Every structure is written in C-alpha cells, then in structure tokens.
TrEMBL record:
<keyword id="KW-0678">Repressor</keyword>
<dbReference type="Pfam" id="PF04316">
    <property type="entry name" value="FlgM"/>
</dbReference>
<feature type="domain" description="Anti-sigma-28 factor FlgM C-terminal">
    <location>
        <begin position="48"/>
        <end position="102"/>
    </location>
</feature>
<comment type="function">
    <text>Responsible for the coupling of flagellin expression to flagellar assembly by preventing expression of the flagellin genes when a component of the middle class of proteins is defective. It negatively regulates flagellar genes by inhibiting the activity of FliA by directly binding to FliA.</text>
</comment>
<keyword id="KW-0969">Cilium</keyword>
<keyword id="KW-0804">Transcription</keyword>
<protein>
    <recommendedName>
        <fullName>Negative regulator of flagellin synthesis</fullName>
    </recommendedName>
</protein>
<dbReference type="InterPro" id="IPR031316">
    <property type="entry name" value="FlgM_C"/>
</dbReference>
<keyword id="KW-0282">Flagellum</keyword>
<keyword id="KW-0966">Cell projection</keyword>
<feature type="compositionally biased region" description="Basic and acidic residues">
    <location>
        <begin position="18"/>
        <end position="28"/>
    </location>
</feature>
<feature type="region of interest" description="Disordered">
    <location>
        <begin position="1"/>
        <end position="46"/>
    </location>
</feature>
<feature type="compositionally biased region" description="Low complexity">
    <location>
        <begin position="1"/>
        <end position="16"/>
    </location>
</feature>
<keyword id="KW-1005">Bacterial flagellum biogenesis</keyword>
<dbReference type="GO" id="GO:0045892">
    <property type="term" value="P:negative regulation of DNA-templated transcription"/>
</dbReference>
<keyword id="KW-0805">Transcription regulation</keyword>
<dbReference type="InterPro" id="IPR035890">
    <property type="entry name" value="Anti-sigma-28_factor_FlgM_sf"/>
</dbReference>
Amino acid sequence: MVINSNNGVNNANQTNTARERNGVERNAESNAKAPAPAQESKLGNVGDKVMLSPEAKSFGKLSAAVAKAPEVDSEKVANIKKAIAEGKFEVNPERIAAKMLQQEDLFG
C-alpha cells in the first residue's frame, strides 16, 4: 500500500481556496444588498447641540494643561536627587502651596 501525501495537502489547499472565494462572494452580496447611506441635508445639522458635563469640562482643562506642560528635564531631576541625597535640598512651603492652589483652579 502506497500513501500519496501530496493528495491530502492539495485537497486541503483547494478546499480552503474555495471557502475563501465563497466568503468573498458572500461579503460582496451582503454589501450589494445593504441600504444606501442617508443623504446629508444641505442645511447640515442646524438643530444639534452638545452639552458637556462639569467633569468633561474639567477633563478638557486638564488635557489642555498637560499638553502645555514642558518635557521632563532629566538634568534638573538628577540635580534634585543629588541635593536630596546630600541633604542640601530645601523645601519651600509657600511655593508648594501656590502650586497646589494653581492646580485647584484647574479643577475648580
């Protein structure tokens, strides 16, 4: 008894190709039967309105602030880490409070 290994492979490839072809034909048929998109009015969407929640408005402000924020200054970060490690870093509570109030204004 001799088994022809090419027959099984060829038949499988032919079957897959036929399935792919049938799938493409079905997609083409369903696209042809799909309803046409609605025609746009020449006046546009005059009556449409969008209302944003306060949270969405805050998110918009935050997004704008992040977009304006500078890139990270690696050299400055390294200098601060060094100053902290050496015990030379001084905390300015007034400056921290002012920055916190600025952030509150973004969300307030």
